C-alpha cells in the first residue's frame, strides 16, 4: 500500500467509525425521525451514503454491489429499484425507507466498508490517475472519484450525527 491509499483507507475507516457511533443505540423510531417535514432522517442518510459508496466502488472494481451480492436489498425490502442509491429521491421516497434497525444499517455499511478497504489495499499510486468516468469535463480520475466519495460520505454522516444530537438533546 502507498501513502495515498493509506490516507484513503484512514478516511473510510473514520466514516465507518462515525456511522457506527451515530447509529448505535438508536431505536427504529429515532432512526426514522425527521426533524423537519422534509428533513432527511438518520436512517436515510446512512443508507444513502452507504449505497453511494457501494455503487461507486462496485463500478470501479467491475464487481457486483454488496447490496445485491450479499442480499442487503432483500433484507431492507425497499420499494425502490435495486439500483437506487437515493440520488433524486423525493420526500416521499425518503419516508419509504421506514424505520430500519440500527444493526441492519451498520451491517450493510460494514460490508461495504470491508469491500472498499479490500479494494484500496490493491490500488497502486499510478491507478489514481486513471480515468474512471468520461461523462464529465474534465473526465473523472479514480483519485478524484474516491476523494469525492469521502467528501459525500463525511457530509452525510455529519448530518446524521447532528440529527442524533437534536433527537437526544445532547444527552448521550
UniProtKB/TrEMBL annotation:
Name of the protein: DinB superfamily protein
A UniProt-annotated Pfam family: MST
InterPro entries xrefs: DinB/YfiT-like, MST-like
Transmembrane residue ranges: none
Amino acid at each position: 500500500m502507498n501513502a495515498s491509499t493509506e490516507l484513503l483507507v484512514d478516511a473510510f475507516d473514520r466514516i465507518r467509525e462515525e456511522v457506527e457511533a451515530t447509529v448505535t443505540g438508536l431505536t427504529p423510531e429515532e432512526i426514522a425521525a425527521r426533524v423537519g417535514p422534509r428533513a432527511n432522517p438518520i436512517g436515510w442518510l446512512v443508507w444513502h451514503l452507504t449505497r453511494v459508496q457501494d455503487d461507486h466502488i462496485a463500478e470501479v472494481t467491475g464487481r457486483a454491489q454488496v447490496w445485491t451480492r450479499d442480499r442487503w436489498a432483500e433484507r431492507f425490502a425497499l420499494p425502490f429499484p435495486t439500483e437506487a442509491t437515493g440520488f433524486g429521491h423525493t420526500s416521499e421516497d425518503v419516508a419509504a425507507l421506514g424505520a430500519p434497525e440500527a444493526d441492519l444499517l451498520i451491517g450493510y455499511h460494514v460490508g461495504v466498508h470491508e469491500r472498499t478497504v479490500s479494494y484500496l489495499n490493491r490500488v497502486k499510486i499510478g491507478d489514481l490517475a486513471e480515468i474512471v468516468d468520461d461523462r464529465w469535463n474534465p473526465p473523472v480520475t479514480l483519485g478524484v472519484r474516491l476523494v469525492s466519495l469521502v467528501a459525500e460520505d463525511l457530509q452525510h454522516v455529519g448530518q446524521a450525527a447532528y440529527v442524533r444530537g437534536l433527537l437526544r438533546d445532547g444527552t448521550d
